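Could you help me review a protein record that somebody else here produced? Here is the record exactly as it was handed to me:
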Amino acid sequence: MRSSRLVRTGLALALLAVGCGGPHREPAGPKAAVADEQPSAAIAQPLVTHEVHASDARAALLRRYAEETGLEARSEAGITKVGPVLSFFEASWLAGLVPGGAVARRETYDEPASPAPFARLREAAGRVPTYVGMRRVAGERFALVTWEGDGEQKDRELYQTNAGGPRFLEKLPARPALGSSSGMVFTKVGDEGTILQVLNEARPDKVKAERLLAWRFTMGARETLFEVPFFSLQLPSETTKPADAKPADAKPAGAQPPKEEPKVLVVEVTRLAPEGAGVRLTSYRVTLRPLEASRSVPLALNEWSHERWKDKELPDLVEMVKVERVGERRSSLE
């Protein structure tokens, strides 16, 4: 029997190999002990994940966010670095709330390769592959291709390469946007390669929502293993009243109107952990209170490079109210 484990991504995405034990010896007597079945090797490595960086002096919110939602935080040369964050949008949103915060992609594709196989793709019409960088993951090869066309904008796309030619995986957003998502992990389950990918999801009750899709290539198509909610963001409403507030005509004469609750941002984020032949997904709800300095600032996606911050001291925009663990689910990768 074979089973697999997905490597824990909350603290790090790495290689996990579990070997088999030594030869089994049966004890004397009429009954023989049953050998414990050992799990087969399982591999999980990141293809596109992200870190949030900020100066140690301004990173109190960033460190608390990491600690309470299952991310790793470290300090290097006066810079706090938090990750890996699978969702590019989550990383960008968080960086915009931390004074001077910035996002960096963790993985490098620095093994040069010929652009010829990509130039022949039908999708290459009107574009030229100007650089191809390769990376080996779990015995497979992946390529990050830079495309240039008539305009100034460059496109970066991720492919998996095999004997049949390049297979498109995803286009990396040039900049964060409410309508785009990115983030990808490659897992090896036995001989099957499986992708965990963050995708955008349109929801009328959320400013931004994402889902996690687990899929693999089969017979030239994509087979979905599972699809689950992954991230959501809700901004403060114009008026937030207590849930037990009564209509005006139901109030006794002379009664004081109920106080409005403070306006808050609410995000739900997901972290992954290995469990048997699948993955356990744990969700957290983070509640943040906007500060006075956040007035007229787009809290969904603030960018500190924007003109509004030029030659200004960067303020704290929010404070953390609470973090709650709100859900857990398990999904198979077999």
